[in-house]
Design brief:
This protein is an all-alpha fold. Helices cover 68% and strands 0% of the residues. It contains seven helices and no strands.
Length: 181
């Protein structure tokens, strides 16, 4: 006759498991996660529980080993992230410059006449073919191509003015009264 299987009653052990988990993690949420993980592993490995061992000792051992595993895994992940950060390009352009530049491009685009802006938008942004865009706008393909060409020319001109330092429609105002010079 087989010896009776030991009772696998963990409810009475929850207090000890929680106290030990809090002691290890120093965080209530992490302690609860650790206890849950421990109970899951204990249930999965319940056939490995030896008659004669105390359930409490066995559960605390699983909890401790799981804590060590998580800690090691976290350390490896931290080292991996640190290595990745050290390999990453540390010279990143200031996001303000990109925002300003994007604003300039947007303003130039919106300054285009409506028919040029809509033609350019359909082809350059929406990715429509010339035929599809012309059909959408109900104009001949040649007219569409002309509008896109004029829009691109206007944008290039505005960009050229920006690069050469011409103020365009903006007026540079100094810190002193220029009328007295």
């Amino acid at each position: 006759m087989k010896p009776p299987k030991p009772r696998f009653d963990v409810v009475g052990q929850l207090g000890s498991l929680r106290r030990y988990a809090r002691s290890l993690t120093r965080n209530d949420a992490d302690a609860e996660d650790l206890v849950q993980d421990t109970l899951l592993r204990a249930y999965e490995r319940r056939s490995g529980f030896r008659h004669g061992n105390t359930l409490r000792g066995w559960l605390l051992s699983i909890l401790h080993n799981r804590f060590i595993d998580v800690k090691r895994s976290s350390a490896v992940e931290t080292r991996t992230l640190e290595a990745a950060y050290s390999l990453a390009d540390t010279a990143i352009d200031a996001p303000q410059e990109h925002s300003v530049r994007l604003g300039q491009v947007r303003d130039a685009f919106f300054a285009l006449p409506e028919e040029q802006r809509s033609a350019l938008h359909l082809v350059a942004i929406e990715g429509l073919s010339y035929e599809e865009a012309a059909s959408t706008l109900n104009i001949p393909v040649g007219t569409l191509m002309s509008r896109i060409s004029r829009a691109r020319t206007a944008l290039r001109s505005r960009e050229s003015d920006r690069q050469s330092g011409k103020a365009g429609h903006l007026k540079i105002v100094g810190g002193r009264d220029d009328r007295n010079d």
